Automatic annotation (TrEMBL):
Protein name: Universal stress protein
Source organism (scientific name): Cupriavidus basilensis
Region spans: Disordered: 151-170
Biased composition (Low complexity): 153-164
Pfam families cross-referenced by the UniProt entry: Usp
All residue ranges annotated as the UspA domain in the record: 4-140
Biological classification of the source: Bacteria, Pseudomonadati, Pseudomonadota, Betaproteobacteria, Burkholderiales
PANTHER family in the cross-refs: STRESS RESPONSE PROTEIN NHAX (PTHR46268), UNIVERSAL STRESS PROTEIN UP12 (PTHR46268:SF6)
Family: Belongs to the universal stress protein A family.
Amino acid sequence: MSLFSRILLCYDATREGRRALRYGAELAQQLHADTHLLAVLESAHWLHGFDALAADALSIEERAAKEILSEGVSKLKASGVTATGHFAVGSPIDQIARVAHALKVDLIVVGHRRCGLLARWWAGPGHGLLLDRVSCSILVAIDPSDAEVPELAQSEASSQADAAGRAQHQ
């Protein structure tokens, strides 16, 4: 039995999600792992209070998310990996952790796009807490061409610090 015998791939059809799917498929194929694919429809908080509109919008979003899941399962099959698809609605962090625990996976594969401080702040609290919510390993697929982004985030932080310093001296 290999170290990773049950793998959960998280897929959302973004560039980062497709990269995670490729990496996960290759790993699952090499390890002959029991493979699961998860698509999460994030709750649309902006629709609360608009009951009629919310039901229609949720139905459209749910259909799109299920199509994304089907597309992911098809891509895996084309690469020689048989995967069971799973669909969930809610916070991606909560749902990934819930499904990982329920399936007793050894490895979660997710895609990641680096972002600056403002984007991280905008994402809200709990955005990076998946590591604290699961008891298995996590493979984070990162695009090597994003290597210059941390420098951008650093310069963004420096600019903010400079602005704060100037404001204190005024």
